[in-house]
Amino acid sequence: MTSKIFLKAKEEKEIKQGFPWVFDNEIEIVKREWLTETGAHQSSLEKLENTKLEDGSVVEVLSKSGLYLGTGIFNKKSKITVRIMSKNRGENFDYDFFKNRIEQALAIRFPYYAKQDSYRLVFDEADFLPGLTVERYCDTEGRVFLCVQFLALCTEKYREEIIEALKEVCHPFGIYERSDASVREKEGLEEKTGWIGAEHNPVITIKENGVLLTVDLEKGQKTGYFLDQKFNRKVVSTFAKGKTVLDTFTHTGAFALNCALAGAKEVTAVDISPEAVETVNNNIKLNNQQKTVTAVCADVFDLLRQYEEEKKSFDMIILDPPAFTKSAKMVQKAYGGYKEINLRALKILKPGGILVTCSCSHFFDTNTFYSMIQNAAEDAHKTIQILEKRGAGPDHPVLVGYPKSEYLKCAILRVL
Which residues are catalytic? Predict the structure, then answer.
């Protein structure tokens, strides 16, 4: 028998619009249903705090009036008490269900990516597999590696079915798990990392837009590498020929190397992390760009200030910082950080220069982002033209009604 979650009055609106989560404070009552040992049907109406419904149970979500909204997995340990996995009543969460979802995710990526490309295969809720991220890496030898991340009980519960489906659909050479994010603790789960099955060297080399890049599946940030900027890097590189370029928060040097291979005159790639700078230097050598690209270990805020004092200028500056805010409460503080780096970058750009500025925080929404750019330009006494407003690549689809899936902003500006 499938237990039911009844929402409080008017709490169904966002779910009907596509939002896939039910928070604990939105639940009015739990109707727990079960069969006795004799096969008799039993049910009990319970408050959430008192329910005996087991975590991991399949539940139907209904409005206060009884309108069916979806089916998901219950987890009392989490503030997100139910993650909706299907809008089809009675659908079974079995191997075929997960294989079908993975095949659908792969199919919508086919028009954009070739077999030798690396891309995000599963983008959690946006691909209707809540809490699951799967990166598909193809190394220079043509071997496919998957990096998987289970961040919620709803998919952790079915990890064996999911792994088997991934093997069947993708035929990977190796699968590495990076379920090492702190959010698992909020789901009542322990962190996990390591190879699933045969072990291999976790450091691989991929090719992106013709650029060779090392990816460390074991120690790289999050799931090894940020694939979401691939097409943005390609577009940005078209402005780089003959230009002096400053790539800040460079991480792996991907933006810098895309620009170098596109004919940039000189590229400076900056990151505060010594480990990141070591990776950048390795990638510079891989691409034989020692004469064009220089890696610098420095605090970007300090370095921009230093360049301004030295009256050093660039034809192009790329700002791709980590998320300055991971909560709605910190947006105003983050605003100051984003504005400062944009203001200083605007001051050291040559007339007619190109500024590429990004934010990867979904809390720092599009309106706030472009308002920040406008205010930075005003304070810098600059006139700007927006050449392109871009986001994440097509391997990061946006689920309508789920704002978190539309997180990346990437603006290409001409500065006058």
Answer: 360
